[in-house]
Specification:
This protein is mainly alpha-helical. The protein is 67% helix and 0% strand. The protein is built from six helices and no strands. It has helices at residues 8-26, 28-33, 48-66, 75-96, 110-120, 126-155. Helix 1 packs antiparallel against helix 3 (48-66) and helix 1 runs parallel beside helix 4 (75-96). The radius of gyration is 18 Å and the shape is flat.
Length: 159
């Protein structure tokens, strides 16, 4: 028996779902903020390796998204298709322009984001508290990752 061929609209929705799950998994603080508590015990991995792997994932999804026949999409999904491609291209472009080597500024970064976690992280159960403690313990590694990125930015003249 042959494989099941999905229509363009269904395939696009699969890719949109994959993208959203990837965003939540790789941005656990954001996931917590919007009420998705699956990743409450971890912080964002800001290591150069993680950022490179994420970019490769975006490239792969972009390639698959570009293979969708836009003519087979309904009008709403034509917009979604364009938005997904633009979003993925934006992620890839930011990596190519080495934006990740400047991981903080006066408005964002772990020095701003981490203290705000307490505002929306749940504290209803022992598991919630344990998750927050795990994040507290992970924070020094995240700061080390930021220092590494900043050093790479200096080396690559990304000032």
């Amino acid at each position: 028996m042959g494989s099941i061929v999905k229509d363009s609209n269904t395939q696009l929705h699969c890719y949109l779902d994959e993208y959203w799950e990837f965003v939540l998994k790789n941005n656990p603080s954001f996931a917590t903020y919007i009420g998705d508590h699956r990743y409450n015990d971890v912080l964002e991995d800001l290591s150069p390796r993680s950022i490179a792997l994420q970019t490769e994932w975006y490239k792969d999804l972009l390639g698959k998204t570009e293979m969708i026949d836009a003519a087979g999409l309904n009008s709403e999904n034509r917009v979604n298709h364009t938005l997904l491609k633009d979003t993925l291209n934006n992620h890839i472009g930011m990596y190519e322009y080495m934006v990740h080597y400047v991981p903080l500024n006066q408005m964002q970064g772990p020095h701003i984001d981490f203290p705000q976690l307490i505002e929306y992280h749940p504290f209803h159960t022992q598991k919630d508290i344990d998750n927050y403690i795990a994040r507290l313990r992970a924070f020094p590694l995240q700061i080390d990752q930021v220092i590494e990125l900043l050093g790479n930015g200096i080396t690559n003249k990304c000032t």
